[in-house]
Amino acid sequence: MSDDGIDGRIGFEVEGRTLRIRDALEGEELPLCFDQEPRPQPALDELFPAPVDRAVSFEAESVSISSYHSILLRESDGELVARLNESMDFQRQTYFIELNGVTKAFIRTPDVAISATGITDSPTVELSFDRPTTVTVGARSLHTRPEATISVPDDPTALAEAVSVLGSSIKEFTPERSWPTLRGYPPRIRVGTELDVPSPLVTPDTGVEVVVRPTYEDIYRLSTLAYYLGANVVVGDGPAIRLDNGYVESLPTEGVALEERAEELLRTWFFLDTLARTEGYVKSDRYEYEQVGSELPFYPPNLADSSMSERLMEYLEVDPETVAPYTPEWPTEAVLRPVPAAMELLPHLAHVLAPVRVRGTADPAADAPIALATSPWMNHDRDGSDTDTTPVPDATSTPSGTTILTPKSYENSLTRATTARGEIRLVVLTDSAARAKRLSDAISDPAVPGGIGSWEVVNNPDVETVTATLSDPETDIAYCCLPIENGEVAACDGVVSLDAPDDSPTLSVFEGVTDPAFGYRIVENGGLSVITSGSLSSPERFRSLIGLLSSGVSIAPSVSLSGDSAATRMRIVGDPGVEIASHSHVLMHVYRAWSESSDSHRIKRRSMLSLSARPGIEDSQLYDGFQPMEELSGKSWVEGPTIDSSDLLTVLEQDDSVVQLNGRLLLPEDVQTEADIARLARQHRSEDAESADSASERSSQ
């Protein structure tokens, strides 16, 4: 049995007056110091308004908290009382102290008044109660990694059983599961010789069954939906969803229609869950509810306490087209070949709620990727029609604008620490002194992008230098402009095989390469991702790409926002939502501005979902003029107001913002004043006018 060392998600250890909360999955500890030595006894999880993995109770009169990201005080029903950002006193009642740190913890304090001190003038927050009381401490693992590994043989029926337990990572099956922090990371799946499900993993009891035919095609197409529903996947004559009240929703039998219906149901039910949770653990005043609430045949929060089957019956009454304009775009959409090896991707795809399509040969020996993915940020090759086609993994060549998925890239993201923004190390390799100068100038003029901590451009590197760079795990971005042929990089004194390095940078970028196949080896050696570009990047595009990646923007948006249509000529190995730099923000936002005058700019905006910012997050905009209400993150472009250069400069200065002005990316280091923005606006309008005049002259000839 493969159990990855399971010993409970949360543990408690006492050391003097300190209670250490141990998150076994994350390998982290959160210490809490009390006024006396805790003598913990097991406590009921149901005492808390939000899910916990384990809880203990003991007597205490105060607690000191020295390691945290945020502390919130809530009433007994979970209603927010205050965010502790200054010394405060609170009247007697039952409170929940919510701690967000290396793990999620709650302290229940019944019938006490609380005095909070040390918040602004000390590294330790002191919470004192007006009398001794029985405190109950509960904690929930952040669960950002799989809890266990399931072994599955080459047998679709066995795989159906394995997919049934992917939902064991979801903390509860109320609409609150639409929050990504309550879904957890599903257990791994590994191809093995027999079915082996570790004992801690069980199929959730949700009253929902997903029926599949015993084929990889059916199971792959329905896997993400089954995970989100916590469904028991069973083999039958035709695809369907069965509810425990006897209702059966038949699904299409034709493959493309089945995957389209599965994605439609996932999108609709997930979105309606986000509306039903608006009066739940985190109360919100939601923009989308204002838009669609009146068109729904029910009041969503009234369904929060209903059974899964009762909610789904109500949800089935909603026309998917009613909610489609307000739903987030999936950051990753996968296309799998119907081969056994592709099953190892299913937990990672379920984790980001990626819809799954199936294309290509079922021959396991075929020399082709087992899976591709698309991103809403990158347009892949088209077939000449007005809409994108689903890429095929075993096409003659990997379609541009797509990413190649491998289980190893996800595993590397689970075990490899991400470098903090501001500390990114960049190494550029080139064989031209002139290009070396242009790229050096692009990095440093007018200033080095703030996400970069160290950088160097190496001209005409020798074999030793190329090998060292492409095998250095301390390098975050290795940017290679050297000639590459047959998987070998040309150094000044020989060639370096890309099969040779025994480790890898976090991200490797190769110019002048159309075949990303050698990227497999780099990812297998520990890299998170590889980007290949069929052409050389201009210095401006190079600076933009590096600036975005080093600031914490994930790979697909970085490629898309860094310049022109060359994004469609790029290919990626690894999930398109991978981030190279970590940052303190929940997610990043992008603003596109078009200048109507030198001081008036029309805005479009959207937020970026990623591997760390997954579907279900809500956010609010910087200015009330944009949208004063909370809204679901990850939707497509939304029209914003017209703002002046001062406001646009303020947006640009936000650490979680990316700004494009008239199609040009603006890094914070590129623009210092409102006058700079006005100058760029005048320049653009002048160029537009000249272009229009030229076009008019041509048409009159």
Task: Outline the structure in words.
Helix 2 packs parallel to helix 3 (255-276). Helices cover 23% and strands 30% of the residues. With 701 residues, it is an alpha/beta fold. It is globular, with a radius of gyration of 27 Å. The strands form eight sheets. Strands 1, 2, 3, 4, 5, 6, 7, 8, 9 and 10 form a ten-stranded antiparallel sheet that branches. Strands 18-17-19-20-30-29-28-24-22-23 form a ten-stranded mixed sheet, with helices on both faces. A five-stranded mixed sheet has the order 36-33-32-37-38. It has 15 helices and 38 strands. The longest helix is centred in the last third of the chain and has 27 residues, at 674-700. It has four domains: 10-140, no CATH class; 149-360, no CATH class; 406-582, Rossmann fold (3-Layer(aba) Sandwich), CATH 3.40.50; 588-688, no CATH class.
Looking at this protein, list some descriptive labels:
701 residues; alpha/beta; Rossmann fold; 4 domains; ten-stranded antiparallel sheet; 15 helices; globular
pLDDT averaged residue by residue: 91
Q: List low-pLDDT spans.
A: 1-7, 382-386
Helix content: 10-25%
Shape: globular
Number of domains: 4
How would you summarize the topology of this molecule?
Blueprint: E1 10-15, E2 18-23, E3 28-34, E4 41-42, E5 54-65, E6 70-75, E7 80-83, E8 88-100, E9 104-117, E10 125-140, E11 149-152, H1 156-164, E12 188-191, E13 208-212, H2 216-229, E14 232-235, E15 240-243, E16 248-250, H3 255-276, H4 287-292, H5 308-315, H6 320-323, E17 333-336, H7 346-351, E18 356-358, E19 371-374, E20 403-404, H8 407-415, E21 419-420, E22 424-430, H9 433-444, E23 452-459, H10 463-470, E24 477-480, E25 484-485, E26 488-491, E27 494-497, E28 507-511, H11 519-524, E29 529-533, H12 539-551, H13 555-561, E30 570-573, E31 581-582, E32 588-597, E33 600-608, E34 618-619, E35 631-632, E36 638-643, H14 645-652, E37 657-661, E38 664-666, H15 674-700
Parallel strand pairs: 11-12, 13-14, 17-18, 20-30, 21-31, 22-23, 22-24, 24-28, 28-29, 32-37
Antiparallel strand pairs: 1-2, 2-3, 3-5, 4-5, 5-10, 6-7, 6-8, 8-9, 9-10, 13-15, 15-16, 17-19, 19-20, 25-26, 26-27, 29-30, 32-33, 33-36, 34-35, 37-38
